[in-house]
Structures are given as C-alpha cells and as structure tokens.
Amino acid sequence: MVDANLDGLRKTFNNGNVVAVDSIDLHIEEGEFIVLVGPSGCGKSTTLRCIAGLETPNDGKIEFGGHDVTELPPKDRAVSMVFQNYALYPSMTVYENMEFGLKMRGADRETIDERVRWAAGIMEIGDLLDRYPNQLSGGQQQRVALGRAIVREPAIFLLDEPLSNLDAKLRSVMRTEIQELQRKLDVATVFVTHDQEEAMSMGDRIAVMNAGRIEQVDPPEVIYHEPNSLFVADFIGSPEINFFESTFDGSDTVDTGAFGFDVPSEVATELSSGLDGRDLVVGIRPEDISLAPLGEGVIDTEIQVLEPMGDTQILYFDIGDSRIRAVVPSAQPIGENDKVGLSVNWENVHFFRPDGPSVVKWRKATDEGVNTDQELRTDQRAGNQ
Amino acid sequence: MSAIDQIGRRREGIGGIVDSVLEEYGSVQGLLFLLPTLVLLTGIVFYPMIQNGLLLSLRDYTLNPAAPDPFVGLANYEYWFFGAGQALFLFSIKVTILYELLVVPFDLVVALGAALLMNERFQLPGLGIETRAFWRGLMLAGYASPAIAAGLTWGIMQQAAEYGIVYQFLTQFFDIPASGGIVSNKPWAFWGVVIAKVWRDFGFMYIVFLAGVQSIPSALYEISKVDGANPIQRFRYITLPHLRTVIVTVVMIRTVFTVGKLAIPLATTQGGPVNYTRVLGLVIYDVGFGEWALGRAAALGMMFAVSIIPLILLWVKTETEDY
Asked: Suppose B229 and one of A44, A300, B233, B321 were both cysteines; which one would form an S-S bond, judging by CB atoms 3.0 to 4.6 Å apart?
C-alpha cells in the first residue's frame, strides 16, 4: 500500500501549443478513493495517463510511496488500469486476459492460477473464464476488466471513465461494486469521470478540473456546499445552480436586477473586502429556492416548465434574461403557468467574483465555526420545508 | 460456429445446383436478367477458353494463315509429359514452386515490416507526422510501377557494371561473378528475380496490413504496456492475432496471383541463365510467342489452369470463412 503524489505536473501536446495539464498538485492518500471530474478536455484523462506512465509529463514530478516514478515506464510502476471500452484482448479468453499481466512479469503457473481464480471469485466471473470477450455482455466485460486490474495487486488503481459504456441501471450497480471492491482492496484509487453525480457518490475526495487545472480538491459535501469558484458551483450539482449577475452597493444591499436583498453586516464586510468593484455573481442552488404565497417572497413569477421527479419536482422560471431552476417537494399542488412567489434560503447563498473565485457564503460569514457537514445538511432540510 | 453452419449448408446445396440457382434468382425470368452478362462472359471468357485454350491445345498450329492447323489429339500434351519438352516442363514446375515459396513469404515479411514501420509515430526530423503521408505513399511506388519497367530496371541494377548498384552493393557481401553479374549467374539470378518481384509487389500486402494495424484500438497497446508486455510481446499477442484474418486472405490472393505472372522474370533475366529462372508462365510465353508453337503453349496453359484450381478453391474457402 502506497500513497501517490503529483507535484507541479504539466503536460503539453503539439510542441507545447496545447496545454492539457497545467501545474497539478495532488496528494492521494493510502487507500484513498479520489475522483477526477471535469468537462471533456479538462485534462483529467491526461493526468491519469501521466500517473499510469502512458504519457511522460513535460514538467513536474510523480511519486509513489516517496519514490520518484516520473520517468518509469508503465510496467515498472505497479499500477493497473481500466479503460472506458475495457480494452480486453479480443484474441484471448477471459482467463488469458486476466493472467496476461502476471505472465508478462514471469510469475509461475501456480501463482498465476491462484491469483486469477481469486480475482475471478471476487468479480464473480468464475464461470466465464473460458469465454472470449466478444461472447460477453458489457457488464461482464467490465467485470473482467476490473478482475484483470486487481489480479496483479497494484499499488495504484486507475480507472478511466469505466462506467460510461454501461446502461444507467448497470452503471449504478457497478458504482457500488467498485466502491466495495476498492474498500476491500484498500488501495489508492484514481477514478476519472465527467459525470458529477458519479463523482459525488463515489469519491472520498473529488478533484474538480477545468482547463488543465484543479479548481478544488475536497470531500463531496464540501465541494457541494462550499464551492470555491463559479466553475465548481456550476459543474457540481444537478439541476445546476442559479446564477444572478448582480451589483453590490458597498454598504448592505445586493441588486440582481430582478430583485434586491439586504445582507447582514458580516457578509457586507466580506463582500467589501473581497470584491474588486461592485459587480458580483450570486449563486443560489435550486433546492434553496422555495415557493411562497404571492407577494410574500422576494419575487413573483410564473412557472414555465414543471418536471416531476417523483418525490420532488423541478420548476423552471424566467427571471430577467435567465432561466431559473427550483427543486420543491412534489406534494405542493402546482402546475405550469401558475403564478407563484419565490423565497430563498439566504443562509446557503454563495457570492462569487465575476472572474470566478468565491468571495463568501452567507452562512460562513454569519455563522463561523458551526458549519460541519452534518449541520449543513440538517439546516438545508429545514430550509426546504 | 456460424462459419461451420454456413459451409455445411453450402455443401448440401451442391447436390441440386439447378434448385439452388432457381432459389437464388427466383425464376427463369430472373435468369433472363443474367443473360446480357452471360453473353458478355461467353464472348470474353468462355469462347477464348474453349477456342484458344482447349481446342488450340489439340492442334498443331502453324504461322501460315493459309495452311490448315490439323488436329493432333493429345500430341501436344505428350510432348510435355514424355517428349522433348519433359525436362523443361519438370524443371519449370520446380522453379515455379520455389519461386512461389520464396516470393510470397518474403512479400509478407517485407510488407508487414513496412506497415508496422509506417504505423509508428516517429519523432525524428524528416520522419515526423508531417512527412508521414509522403513515406507511406513512397512505400507504394513499386506497386504503382509497371512490372516490365520495374523488371528491366532491376535487371540493369543487377548487372556487373558501374550503374549496377544492386550488384555493387551485394558483391561486398557475396562472391558474385563479375561476368554477367547477378542476372546471368546461378544461383544469383534466381534471387535477383525474387528481389525484383518482392519490391514490385509488396505494396499490395503493405496497404492491406497498414489498414489492418490502424484498426487495432490503441487502448489494447496501452493496457498491454501497463500489463508489462515488451514490443515483441505486444506484436505477438495483439498485432499478430488481430491481423490473422487479413494475413490468410492476402497470402492466398498473392499465391494465386503470383503463380502465372511472368513480367518480372521476363524483364529481369529473360528466364536465364539458360532456363534457370524460367517459371511456368514464362515457358508458356516463350513457346507460344517465341517459337510460335501455340498448340504446345496452349497445352501447357491448360495443364497450368487445371493445376491452380485447388489453390483457387482454397482461396475461395478462406474468403468465405469467418475467423
């Protein structure tokens, strides 16, 4: 069991014209499950490939358990990897696929057989060992790919969007299985995905990447409740957070154009010191907007679209130029085109500088020191009711 | 599994050709639609096959258009089997088989090597991604050139002269007699023809292999690197299994299409020294258009045609089988 450390990692392509990964610092603890998440082209796969040794970084250092492996070829790194399309060797049976890594390393027959059967047992593919990959379903191929990866007892386990080719139901099953597997093996794991929901549900910590850089590395709850930039707030959370381009008058009022509100002095202080000018972006999560009787909320508006989700429903409103989302319990008897008032759970409102970084969260300013995850959750639930 | 089923079904069908033909085309009406093609094929394939092949092989052909070309029965066949032509006949069969056994595997190795090389991403100056198309295209130069021109050029390059650069190069490693160079001395002449032939032909296999290796998902190579396979093992466990089907196919195609070709031996060595590189196709050509003994040439051609039928059947079988 080892930890891994990335230090100032930089990788460019096309003679430096394309910067895929730019000065990434990341420490992966022993046994930690870390998820790299971000939109397409943000450099998350390149980062993973650098860790695997499939790409050599132009700059920076990669260490496994304190040893510098930056220049080592993949085979000497004791990593194992699962690709999105599984990359099973088509000409080999499941057994041969799984033994390949050990065979290439010159392990003896008995060890190989023992390890393959052990891994096949864990992945429950013992009865598929004689089949060829093209005789397997997508889910079975996935299990074989995972089995092949664990056979060698890797120091680091790398997964590159391994669930993207599965259908929704199987994906959620495999999600849980991979988590359990990782806990059982207790090996440092890097999981790459573009799916924020997958990231939220799986990672011990999440590294949100954007344009080759890591925007924030934190546990899922922190990423969600305390995003440190516009990008993170926007990328994490479904439905997406609502943004209002607003102005701050310098003393105690924020004006979003559609409505204005007063902020407590603690928040005002933070805003005054954190903002360059008067422009700011107010971020309100859909679940922090609730319905109020007409005239009693911050604004009255009309429900444009209503999406029933079962226990909740997503409402869409047009306020100013932007479309606003709210998540409310489905018990509320409302329909499209109804006029309603909206109220906001102000404590969970985020304030960002227009160029990205977070300035302050309302509660953080007013409530220093009591924002443990548990409390946040309880409060949030209370706010929804 | 499905391949075996298909073959089984096809075998059953051979019993009732008429039935299966009618089943395939629906009715006599359907067959009528085939008539134009049949007429055309009769004119350009079946008629010449009968008239200039089978019937000609039974005549004693003379150049004089006024003189009759009498039927001589199987005399032309007898000439090759038991008569004066026997020695050349047997020798040329031996040469042809040897030629085939060397050219096709050489062709395969050179083409595979070229395809793998051209598939690499070199970082060297002049060999990078910008010039890739040029090098890939250059590999096809041989296949694009006329066989006669290629053969003549190779023949010249293999002569023991200042301009004979192939001779000049090889003579540093081998003791090749200066009188006559490669093209006029045993056993060098044979190798000279083989080299010229492989150079002229490997482009075909090369382009097929290049397409083949390009269709291998790069993730397979990457995971095998993580698994610890070295380049030779990657070739052995990924590239080769992936190319197996195309290798079988192109080897069959090449075997069938090399056996009757005579342009390269004709242009490079003219079959010499004496008959040393006289492959069967060249014998037919020489007897027919050199000695104007068209009856004898036709007899040889008929035997040749019959003897490659098994090869063609084998080829068709590999084409229809799925691996």
From this structure: B233
DSSP code at position A136:
S
Which segments within B7-158 are labelled E, that is strand? none
- Report the number of distinct structural domains present in chain A: 2
* pLDDT given at position A220: 94
pLDDT for A141 equals 92
The pTM (predicted TM-score) of the whole model is 0.76
Q: Does A56 touch chain B (CB under 8 A)?
A: no
Q: Tell me the residue type at A359.
A: V
CB A245 within 8 A of CB A279: yes
**Same structural domain for residues A87 and A112?**
yes
Answer yes or no: do A303 and A341 share one domain: yes
Which residue in A has a C-alpha nearest to residue B245's C-alpha? A91
**Residue located via tokens 């604004």:** A299
A65 Cα distance to chain centroid: 25
What is the pLDDT of chain A when averaged over all its residues? 87
Confidence (pLDDT) at A383: 37
Residues of A in contact with B223 (CB under 8 A): 81, 83, 87
pLDDT at B112 over 60: yes
pLDDT (tens digit, 9 = 90+) per residue, B71-82? 888 888 988 888
The answer to whether B251 and B168 have CB atoms below 8 angstroms apart is no
Q: What is the CATH number of domain B85-320?
A: 1.10.3720.10
Q: Which of A341, A232, B179 is nearest to B167 (CA)?
A: B179
